[in-house]
Amino acid sequence: MAAEESEERYRTLFNANKDCITLFSINDDIPSKFINCNDAAPQMLGYIKEEMLNLTIFDVDVSCTPDVIGAHIKQLTDTGQLNFETSYRCKDGSLKDMDVKASFLHLQGQNIVMKIGRDISKLKEQQNAIQEQNERLKEIAWTQSHLVRAPLAKIMGATELISSSQLSHNEDARELLQALQLSTKELDDVIREITEKTYH
Question: For residue 85, what are the CA distances in angstroms to 80, 94, 97, 101, 111?
């Protein structure tokens, strides 16, 4: 009775998990069809459970090749666990970005791989949107700094010419020139600061 209750508790927890859990055996580094999966796995990928159990990890994980499986098995053998990001292919051909944790189980003399995949598609979309926004901001900052700096450089050059001319001997002109030089210097510093903050 205790064993039955324990098994029922395990089954309940297994199927209550919202992540995609798949199990398959390994023989000579060759994965079998899925021997079990939780309820979330076929729901997430658009299958019914019977269809899911006729698939292999090669049908689902787009990055999975015989070489990759071999490398994963080696790492699982050496460390007992594995964590990586990949994409899972749904029944309709669409892809989901997944964060996968894999571990080895030894059941009834078999080497069983259990993979727990968490859908991180929305997180990836948000990260990509932020990256694109940052790139746009960098482009805007670069464009604006160069558009402003070009005429500013001309103004600064003109003030240098004026300061070396006869006009600089006029008191009013000299004060106006100093104010202009100070303003252009401040504006140049602001542009440099914006550029530095954008790229660092």
Answer: 18, 17, 7, 9, 23
Whole-number Å distance between alpha carbons of 76 and 70? 10
Last residue of a domain, one of 87, 119, 151: 119
Which CATH number do you get for residue 81? 3.30.450.20
Contacts of residue 41, defined as CB under 8 A and 6 or more positions apart, other chains included, come to 20, 21, 22, 47, 52
- pLDDT (tens digit, 9 = 90+) per residue, 73-128? 899 989 989 999 999 999 999 999 999 999 998 877 788 999 999 999 999 999 98
φ, ψ dihedrals at 133, nearest 5°: -65, -40
Domain of residue 15 covers 2-119
| Cα–Cα distance measured from residue 155 to residue 37, given in angstroms and rounded to the nearest whole number | 71
